[in-house]
Design brief:
2 copies of one chain form a homodimer.
Chain A lengths: L5 E5 L7 H11 L3 E7 L16 E7 L5 E5 L3 H12 L6 E8 L6 H4 L1 H11 L4 E6 L7 H18 L6 E6 L9 E4 L7 E9 L5 E9 L8 H6 L2 E7 L9 H4 L5
Parallel strand pairs in A: 1-2, 1-5, 2-4, 5-6, 6-7, 8-11
Antiparallel strand pairs in A: 3-4, 7-11, 9-10
Helix pairs in contact in A: 1-5, 2-4
């Protein structure tokens, strides 16, 4: 293991979110850090990238020496830009989070936090996404210890090409966490509903709302986290459904 | 096959793009259409959804009876909103495109066009994304005929749960198209580069640029389209890397 690895830290909650500061603190004990993160909250932007607008970058700093690049773009933009233009060399690992709110089951498709890790993986860099199951504040110290543990393991063992780790941490104190479970993405889905409202000028708009379903299948991220474990799910983006190619070939287009 | 299916038409180039009008024309020959598409271009937004802003919707119309919902949101928003709130019943199929520009290989991760189809699939609706390998204008009549053919087949045979069809059409006249090939997503990737510029006030910004690599592996979408064929790739979003779970379990966290 590289004694002083280059670590790219990013997130989707914005560069001044408590979660990324906590992740920076934890990673400081492992290696050299570059922070490149959106200048404002970019939750649920999925794998959006900015191709039709210029991307502004500002160097910012905070308490205890925290500093980084605030990027007017998405998490995937941050990773691309950091690896291509902001960092002197390719990072040894991309670490994203600690997200405010779980990213389990289908969430990973919408998650900016996970997409940053996906982008790292597409660039050939081992990448990990961390999320905490609390949408406000939360027990970041437990997630910090978990992040340090897992990132050290990834730096030691590496990851196969195309595979990222999606980590979810229950929002409980570190001593209450029961352990780490390697899981699969669960069946937890977000059930949409839309609330229609009228603005003061008589025009309509909608708010997306809804709620997550419960996960109840053994071996899933949702069940592990509900039971007080950290879930680690290996994720890949090989999207071709090979099994269906033969059937499609019988369609006689 | 339903004699008068409900078809949801969307895209990522915006509701007044030539490609969606062409798709609407082609689908008009098959069933009842609802158009719900972004009010402006949303290319490369991936699977972004709008959760922190209200979503405005305006009914718009164009030539020859073309009409639909212009949504201030992403392609995935359009599908969610149409299926949950704008349409009277769930559509029989979601059709996205015709995109201005190919969506092959890794493009599908960034593509708003494909993400609209992904969202349809997540909602349990058979979904197809169409892209034309031309970034301006192009031979839309060929793509129209292709779209009509494929959508009729999907309505007849259905698609397995979770599988969408990603269709790319070469930008040549219909009589020059050599046929349809069922393919896998290729190795074509976009190689990023960023151009740094200084604005008139001395501040820096970046433009994302770069270019696609060539695909040269047999059986891929890129090779089929380069050879003058339409490519149809079945795509799923089961993202768990099951093969790696056993290895991760040996990591002794």
């Amino acid at each position: 293991m590289n004694k002083n690895p280059n670590i790219l830290v990013t997130n989707d909650d914005g560069i001044f979110a408590p979660g990324i500061y906590a992740l920076w603190e934890a990673m400081n004990e492992i290696g050299q850090i570059t922070v490149a993160a959106p200048d404002s909250e970019k939750s649920a932007v999925g794998h959006a990238i900015t191709i039709t607008d210029p991307i502004r970058v500002q160097e910012v700093s905070g308490k205890n020496g925290y500093n980084g690049f605030a990027v007017k773009g998405t998490p995937a933009d941050c990773v691309k830009l950091a690896c291509s233009a902001l960092m002197e060399s390719t990072p040894d690992i991309v670490v994203s989070g600690i997200n405010s709110g779980a990213n389990m089951g289908n969430d990973v498709i919408y998650s900016g936090t996970v997409s940053a890790a996906t982008e790292g993986t597409l660039l050939g860099i081992p990448s990990v996404a961390f999320s905490l199951t609390s949408v406000r504040g939360g027990e970041l110290t437990g997630a910090q210890a978990v992040a340090k543990n897992i990132v050290q393991k990834v730096l030691e063992y590496g990851l196969p090409k195309g595979v990222l780790l999606n980590v979810n941490v229950p929002n409980i104190t570190y001593d209450k966490i029961k352990g780490i479970k390697v899981t699969k993405l669960g069946n937890r889905v977000f059930k949409d509903s839309f609330e229609k409202r009228e603005d003061p000028r008589g025009k309509y708009y909608y708010w997306m709302s809804g709620e997550h379903s419960e996960d109840n299948e053994d071996g899933t991220d949702g069940v592990a986290v509900n039971d007080g474990f950290v879930s680690i799910t290996p994720v890949h983006h090989r999207l071709t459904e090979h099994e269906y190619i033969e059937t499609l070939n019988t369609w006689n287009f």
